[in-house]
TrEMBL record:
A GO BP annotation: pyridoxine biosynthetic process
Name listed for the protein in its UniProt record: pyridoxal 5'-phosphate synthase
UniProt cross-references to SUPFAM superfamilies, sorted A to Z: FMN-binding split barrel
Cofactor (UniProt): FMN
Name of the top EC class for this enzyme: oxidoreductase
E.C. number(s) listed in UniProt: 1.4.3.5
Length: 226
């Protein structure tokens, strides 16, 4: 697998503490996300790997779509009866990683997870294409099914049923929000001395007695060895 090694950035193109575009991690994420969204070679800038775990610590990870972000948290939607939904219910802590390959950048977010309000979930559900709305009813996510055909048959049935009327949000389809406790901004370097800048809530860093720089809005930041 040695031939799969790729080059990243030039050693002079580094991520320095003094040159951060914002000392607020949410604003910095927004800047990076905007740059990724404006590129033609990043097909889905909001694709994120979400990691959850059971109460006993058995982990699982999958890709979801980040649908909103900001000071209040990082939001995604899913079936609450799915594996990730069940794991969040019993262990409401999660990690999310977004990787923008053409930019040699990624952001890792860790924190508590909370379910957003029913009204927020419904408001977003109503904006989805009808095919996606029907799909939420067809798929009882993470359950065993007999065949692909069984899904297709139910989908056709519901397409007829809802042809001329609104598709209601299933009670099990909800939005979740990660409230970041830690956010890490990573930038790859060809010499493998990658840049890793971590933002953490000031009170948490103080408990760990970590030497850090003052950020904004109650955040501090520091550099980790690659």
């Amino acid at each position: 697998m040695i031939e799969l090694r790729v080059s990243y950035r030039d050693k002079d193109d580094v991520l320095l503490e003094d040159s951060l575009e914002s000392k607020n991690p949410h604003e910095l994420f927004s800047i990076w996300f905007k740059k990724a969204s404006e590129r033609g070679d990043v097909r889905q800038p909001n694709a994120a790997c979400l990691a959850t775990a059971t109460k006993s610590g058995i982990p699982s990870a999958r890709f979801v779509l980040l649908k909103a972000f900001g000071e209040s948290g990082y939001t995604f939607y899913t079936n609450s009866e799915s594996r990730k939904g069940r794991e969040i219910e019993e262990n409401p802590i999660a990690a999310m990683t977004i990787y923008w390959d053409p930019m040699d950048r990624s952001v890792r977010i860790e924190g508590a997870v909370e379910k957003i309000s029913e009204s927020e979930s419904t408001e977003y559900f109503d904006t989805r294409p009808k095919s996606s709305q029907i799909g939420a009813h067809v798929s009882r996510q993470s359950t065993v099914i007999a065949s692909r055909e069984s899904l297709s048959e139910l989908n056709k049935k519901l397409e007829i049923e809802y042809a001329d009327k609104r598709v209601p949000r299933p009670s099990y389809w909800n939005g979740y929000r990660i409230i970041p406790k830690t956010m890490e901004f990573w930038q790859g370097q060809s010499d493998r001395l990658h840049d890793r800048i971590v933002f953490e809530r000031a009170e948490n860093a103080a408990e760990k007695q970590i030497a850090s720089h003052a950020g904004e809005n109650g955040w501090v930041f520091y550099r980790l060895s690659p």
